[in-house]
Amino acid sequence: MNSALIQKYNVPGPRYTSYPTVPFWDKEGIAQTDWEQTVIRAFNESNDSEGISLYIHLPYCESMCTFCACHKHITKRHEVEDPYISTVLKEWNLYVDLLPERPRIKEIHLGGGTPTFFSPANLKELINGIFKTADRCEEYEFSFEGHPNNTTKEHLQALYEVGFRRCSFGIQDYDPIVQKAVNRVQSFEAVKTVTETARAIGYTSVSHDLIFGLPFQHDSSIRDTIAKTIELMPDRIAYYSYAHVPWIKGVGQRGFDENDLPKDDEKRHLYELGKQLFFDNGYVEIGMDHFALPSDSLYKAMKSKKLHRNFMGYSAGKTKLMIGLGASSISDSWYSFAQNEKNIVDYTNVVNEGRIPIFRGHLLTQTDLIVRQHILNLMCQLETSWKNPSHYFDNLEDSLARLKEMESDGLLTLGEKSIKVSEEGRMYIRNVCMALDRRLIDNKPETRIFSMTV
Question: Is the full-model pTM beyond 0.90?
Answer without folding.
Answer: yes
